């Protein structure tokens, strides 16, 4: 199944996609839905209904609203690590964003003038569907609600001001997430999903989720050894090669750019970039 | 005024300390109280009441429950930076914890066997009292609800597994916070508050908040340039010299240790350490 959080008449709603359109669910966001232990059954029951809601791109919100935790992994695409001449890591490199960092999948991303080096990072995002603490990778796998797309937009100048990346990663409304959560029965990143990023139609990143060093279940299991994860929490799994900072010369997002982030089987994010002069 | 969050008959309550004892407030935690724009007036009105509630050390909860953001600053005590031969930083080094990371001021801190290098970091904590975004240091100063004590307990082995410290800083229930929030009219860290940490009665850290490179207002102003801060959010301001990792040989917390963290004019945290063999 494919779930989304959309704005209907000014209020957020969880919806499920069908071949006929979107069916409304009695929850104000996908996170609220996932907090119901029997959420799969609830969605299946509503799929029998015929109450369709109109959904256009302007109505999409971040697929999860107000997650408690948004945890990101860096250095996680095997082919990119090897091409950079680095060793494969023994442990995942983890940092954080906030619910405030998130933006809609088709939102205009409007930045203030604080950063001069706004960069892209196409990423597979995993949405947690059950509470887990100290879980094995097998338990983690069954706690995954589904997968979606994100772009871990990074302010490189802020990210490199100190040793800790957080301040360059947590700008408000910088990180599009969506458009839909696709459940694991319809989507298997381990088997391989093409992931790419385009700026103004030019492909700048291209990779495959089968080359993740730490897959979704491994990341959730590892994180759960130090902190609890709950329904709606978001894990960003890292980005393949091709970020703007690593180009010669470096290239960053500019006012008016159109950023498209695509993962096969899930869909795409499409975000216009607005940066004041 | 001095505010606390305590457990009364199994439910959390915000209370205010008076010379006669603690007066109950109609909020379930200091964060809920701070979300009321007129919180100072509300507390003053209740101070006229004579309804005292019994408070002993077992009833203290983290002074703020469920903050949206817990942001920490590293490398921030001038004397310690200079004694280590480092340059004073141009920007604050920031990383994060979670509401789940917090523990009561007198709680037993029970760790699992994941870390073998559990270290102390006595810190002044600042509690935000109003929503701020892109604020000046002057605006930040008037948005401070007050000050309290924390110990940024750090799992050094996890902290150093990768370049990003987060995974060694965000173990659940690792970070005592409290016992009271003291409002700025009664507490001025810039003028200088003695801060110290004792393990089993031995003083291992001793510093003064007047030597902070980035003071509370500077940190809030800086953070607000990339993300909004709200009432109840917590900023940990860094630790003076004397952490266990920097000793020769290194020293870490052991099962049965008693950790006391003291800031003049606020009070002390007293935490028994429990670590399985």
TrEMBL record, chains A, B:
Gene3D superfamilies in alphabetical order: Fumarylacetoacetase-like, C-terminal domain (3.90.850.10)
EC numbers: 3.7.1.5
Hydrolase among keywords: yes
Stretches assigned to the Fumarylacetoacetase-like C-terminal domain: 69-273
Keywords: Hydrolase, Metal-binding, Pyruvate
Leading EC class: hydrolase
Pfam family, one: FAA_hydrolase
Protein's GO biological process: carboxylic acid metabolic process
InterPro entries given in the database record: FAH, Fumarylacetoacetase-like_C, Fumarylacetoacetase_C_sf
Gene Ontology MF terms: acylpyruvate hydrolase activity; isomerase activity; metal ion binding
Superkingdom of source: Bacteria
Family from the record: Belongs to the FAH family.
PANTHER family for the chain: FUMARYLACETOACETATE HYDROLASE DOMAIN-CONTAINING PROTEIN 2A, FUMARYLACETOACETATE HYDROLASE DOMAIN-CONTAINING PROTEIN 2A-RELATED
Name recorded for this polypeptide: Acylpyruvate hydrolase
Source organism (scientific name): Alpinimonas psychrophila
